[in-house]
Design goal:
The chain has 454 residues and is an alpha/beta fold. It contains 14 helices and 19 strands. Among the domains are: 209 residues, FAD/NAD(P)-binding domain (3-Layer(bba) Sandwich), CATH 3.50.50.60; 75 residues, no CATH class. Helices cover 37% and strands 24% of the residues.
């Protein structure tokens, strides 16, 4: 048994797998996917898989290229900004962008997954469900598989293998056994738990629909993203241990008391809070870096399998879909010269995925702590004023990452320069009118070249 000619075998029908698969079929390849889960279109999802994702420019671009975005309009809700809920139940709105087109889009992970699986199958991708890959012989591309329903084990010849199997990738695990494979994983000392705000009568949303709601509380936070069925998918991010942690919330009374005192305006909206809390597991968050992502033109890692990041910039899947865009561009340029395509892919992506990993960790502090701070909000106003005056040069970091497809590494570097500039310009002022525009102009022209857009 040896590698199947002309076939591409993907491991994982999560989010990147089906999108990549259908684009590969479009290019004339035969594509199959092995997925360990049961069919989510028929089986009720297990607790812990109902989070919502924020889709933005990079993800949307890839979905448009695949011809899927227009149809997805009915399952997304645009979020125009952050709605901050203070401990005193005061509400402040902070727009994400300059206008109504600069929004991020809330979508249920399950709805997105189902739409992608349907589209992949319609275009001829063969999806083997409940087939867990338990290993791979990388030199011959032979997969070890376990049927999750019967427990039966068998081997199968694979084509070129692309590991789209997420942050705990089996394919990466096999690469790790070989020499000269670099790998690091860093867990946050935080966990997350999914909760729900049900729809109110008539299926309406209990809070403003077109916003991402945040209850920032210093070193922890609650967030809520709208769903098309009138519910909100909430995520509570808390330290794993110590003060105000998951460890301490071990009884219904403790949970209710915690929410009542920390998120008082959210409690009346969550009638099943305690049941919900104990029904859902605590998830963990990890940053994974590794290299090389490919093996002898026979296997490649893509998406979270290559570079899992923490979720605080809402970029995990946007980055994974951008991986697909870049890989397909290289394939269109070089044809099926897999060595060239895979090494070019890693060269193009690694610096950028490392950058978004750093940006995502940095954004955790911003979301849970700084968004409620008056100085932070003032800096945001100055940022927008600078962008308005120098739109080619001063583009806020958030906009570069979210609304544009500026390489992440560029966004990180320019963001650091702009942060220093803002600190200098905002130091002694409290009103945008008092900005020293001469100094601003000098700084902008000396430190920021015009931004090149892909
Ligand atoms: C709490 C949270 C919030 C997030 N919010 C956002 C957000 O707002 N915006 C955003 O862009 N991203 C967000 N993300 C990140 C996003 O979910 C991931 O980046 C994205 O799902 C990665 O896609 P993927 O295809 O690489 O992996 P996955 O979507 O994880 O898919 C991997 C698939 O492989 C299957 N699989 C795994 N192992 C095997 C095996 N051995 N054999 C066969 N099949 C296997 C799995 O069952 C799964 O279906 C968030 C993540 C979390 C945890």
């Amino acid at each position: 048994m040896s590698q199947k000619n002309g076939m591409i075998t993907l491991i994982g029908a999560g989010l990147t797998g089906p999108l990549l698969a259908l684009e590969l079929v479009k290019r004339g390849f035969q594509v199959e996917i092995y997925e360990r889960r049961a069919d989510m279109r028929r089986v009720h999802m297990s607790a812990g898989r109902s989070i919502n994702l924020a889709l933005s420019a990079r993800g949307i671009h890839a979905l448009k290229q695949a011809g899927l975005w227009d149809d997805m309009q009915k399952i997304v809700i645009p979020m125009k900004g952050r709605m901050m809920h203070s401990a005193a139940s005061e509400i402040t709105f902070q727009p994400y962008g300059r206008n109504e087109s600069e929004v991020i889009n809330s979508i249920s992970r399950a709805d997105l997954n189902i739409a992608l699986m349907n589209a992949a199958e319609e275009r001829g991708v063969k999806v083997h469900l409940q087939m867990r890959c338990t290993g791979i012989d990388l030199s011959r591309n032979i997969l070890q598989l376990r049927d999750e329903e019967t427990g039966e084990k068998h081997s199968a010849a694979a084509g070129v293998v692309i590991g789209c199997d997420g942050s705990a990738s089996e394919i990466r695990g096999e690469m790790l056994k070989r020499s000269r494979f670099n790998f690091s994983q860093q867990y946050l000392d935080y966990g997350y738990k999914e909760l729900t705000i049900p729809a109110v009568c008539g299926g309406r949303h209990a809070l403003e629909t077109n916003a991402l709601h945040i209850w920032p509380r210093g070193n922890y936070m609650l967030i809520a993203l709208p769903n098309v069925d009138g519910t909100f998918a909430c995520i509570l991010f808390l330290p794993s241990g110590g003060r105000d942690s998951f460890e301490q919330l071990s009884t219904r009374a403790a949970v209710l008391e915690f929410f009542q005192s920390r998120f008082p305006d959210a409690v009346p909206l969550m009638p099943d809070l305690a049941d919900n809390f104990f029904a859902n597991p605590v998830g963990s968050m990890v940053t994974i870096r590794c290299s090389p992502w490919h093996f002898e033109g026979k296997a490649l890692l893509l998406g979270d399998a290559a570079h899992a990041i923490v979720p605080f910039f809402g970029q995990g899947i946007n980055c994974g879909f951008e991986d697909c865009t870049v890989l397909l561009e290289l394939l269109d340029r070089h044809g099926a010269d897999w060595n060239k395509v895979f090494s070019g892919f890693e060269r193009a992506r690694k610096e950028n995925t490392d950058a978004i990993a750093d940006l995502a960790i940095e954004n955790f502090v911003e979301m849970r702590d700084r968004v409620g701070d008056a100085r932070f909000l003032f800096r945001k106003k100055v940022e927008l004023a600078l962008q308005e005056k120098y739109p080619q040069r001063f583009v806020p970091k958030y906009a570069m990452v979210t609304f544009l497809r500026v390489p992440y590494a560029t966004a990180l570097k320019r963001g650091q320069v702009q942060d220093r500039m803002l600190t200098e310009l905002c130091e002694h002022i409290d009103r945008v009118e008092d900005l020293d525009w001469k100094k601003a102009e000098r700084l902008v022209y000396s430190e920021l070249s015009p931004l090149e857009l892909p």
